[in-house]
Every structure is written in structure tokens, then in C-alpha cells.
Amino acid sequence: MFIRLLNKQKQAKMAVYSIRELENLSGIKAHTIRIWEKRYRLIEPHRTNTNIRYYTDANLKKILNVAVLNRQGMKISHIANLSDLELKEAIMRETDSTSSHETLIDSLVVAMIDLDPYILNSIIEKSTSKIGFRDTVTSVLYPFLHKVGILWQSEKVNPAQEHLVSSLIRQKIIAATDKLPNTFDPNGKKFLLMLLEGEWHEIALLFAQYLLKEAKHEVIYLGQSVPYSDVLATGAAMHFDYIMISFTTNRSGFDSMVCLKDLGGAFPDKKILYFSGLIEIPPAGLTENHLPLHTIQDLTDFLNDL
Predict the structure, then answer these.
(1) Residue 7 pLDDT level (bands cut at 50, 70, 90)
(2) 287 vs 265: CA distance, rounded Å
């Protein structure tokens, strides 16, 4: 992990990036970034007292915007001569006209850093109109959230930025789900979805609900932070075929493996599907009625096989 910088920057919680982090977030090789710095003075790195290069949010936004235009064929020598206003206008034109996933993802990252809900919403709406809601989520929003996760883990994203994008995406999924017809396949299955107590990040389960309803399966969604006793009571009171849960955080005093074993014991005749996010859950000790879903594609494959 990149070295923590000056105490003053720590106190201000200013995000700083190494050149390798710029490479990982933009897709532009560190060597190329250095060449662009020297030849075109495209971005100006800052330096610590010990002469270590570092970059700010402004540098990251600039390199992401440059990456967008360069991918679309604009020469770097031309991009370097654009004013900030001209660069912004060029990006807006490109975002309006393109269906490139990489361009949309990079534009979302810039809008998140700027805390700009209008631009975030506009990009999502344009993508949905061009490639549909399902592909927007799987090909644009999920890769975008992966980048947000990288930034969050390295403390480059503050809670307000993360909450803004999570809240907006959550709203979009709920709205799209509400538009689906409320009809079920008589040969379909019944799914019980919930986040267990202490879990609040529900984007994966909300989109799973969308996919299940789109496939005309019946869904009972209990929501966030459901006490385990309520899960047992609900399971005893109604018929269903599958339980779906999601683990997104490691919490003190909570053992996801124990939870899965308890659910398997309580519902031995049900299939228990679980998203584990960044949490490693070894399969040893679990039974055949447990099925891990590492990605949304795993869920799609599962539904196709039903």
C-alpha cells in the first residue's frame, strides 16, 4: 500500500495516489503516464519531502478523462492542449454518444469524486437507454462498484461519496424492479431473500431480486439486518424453495461459517445461496444444500439451469 503522506494531508483526509494506483484505476500504464508528464506536462505530480511522487483527486480525474478521449482515438498531443473547460465539454460529448463501458465507468468515478448526483444519474440513464438496465448493471455499475471498492479499501473514498453512489444505484434497481410485471411462472420457484442482522449493503440482493422477478420466480424480500430468530420464524410460517443471503463485511462476534451451518441445519431441504463479497468462506464443512455465488454471472448461470 502506498505510504501515508504528510500529517497535514492526513488531518485534511485528502486522497493521495501512487502512480501504480493511477495505473490500476485508469488502465494507463505508469510508464506512459510518466512520458505524458514529461513530454506534454499533462499532469503535475506532487512530491513529499523525501521526493516521492504522489497524485491528488484532481490528477486522477484528469487522467481518467484523458483515458476516455485517448481510447476514442483523440491524440494525446491534442488532448494536452485542451483547457479544463474544453476537456470537460469533450468528455460530456463522448459520454452522450458512446456505449463504451470503460468510458461510462471512468465518467462515473469522476462524478463520484465530485459528489455530482446529476452527472451520476445522467450517465446511468443514458447507459440504460442504450444497452438496457440488466447490461448497465452487469457491465457498467458492477465494474464501477469494483473500482469504488478499491478506492474504499485504500481510503481514497470518503463515506459521503460511497453512500451517494450506493444510494443512487439502490434507487435505480428498486425502480426497475417495480416496473417488472407482477406475474409468476406456475412452474417457477419461490425465493426468500434477506440480509442477516448487522448487514446493510443490499445492492447484490436487490439486483438478484430483479433477476428473479424478471425470470418470473416468486420473491419474498425481507430487507436489511433481519434477526436470525425472525428468519427461522419466517421459514416455519411459509413455503419456499431457496434462501438467498449476502455477506459483505467481517463483523466482530459474527462467524459467517457458523451462520451458514446453522441455516443448513434449520432448513436441510432448502438450497441456501449466498453472496460472500470479499469474505473468504471455505467450502469445507458446508453441505450440498449450500451454493456460493461469487458473481452475478454465477446467479445468472444458476437461473438458466433451473
Answers:
(1) very low
(2) 9
Q: Is pTM beyond 0.85 here?
A: no
Number of H helices, E strands in the chain: 15, 7
187 with 171, same domain: the answer is no
Number of structural domains the chain divides into: 2
Q: Chain centroid to CA 165: how far? A: 9
Parallel, antiparallel, or unpaired for β 53-54 and 46-47? antiparallel
- Positive or negative, the CA dihedral 67, 22, 172, 174 is positive
- Domain membership flag for residue 268: yes
Same domain, 156 and 223: no
Tens of pLDDT, residue by residue over 249-288, are 666 666 677 788 888 888 888 999 988 765 566 666 677 8
Amino acid at 231: V
d(CA 201, CA 249): 9
Q: Where does a domain end: 124, 150, 177?
A: 177
Partners of residue 275 on adjacent β-strands: 246, 293
Range of the domain at 158: 7-177
**Judgement on whether residues 13 and 161 belong to the same structural domain of the protein:** yes
Contact 56, 16 (CB under 8 A): yes
Computed over every residue of the chain, the mean pLDDT equals 86
**Per-residue pLDDT tens over the stretch 21-71:** 999 888 899 999 999 998 998 888 888 888 888 999 999 999 999 998 988
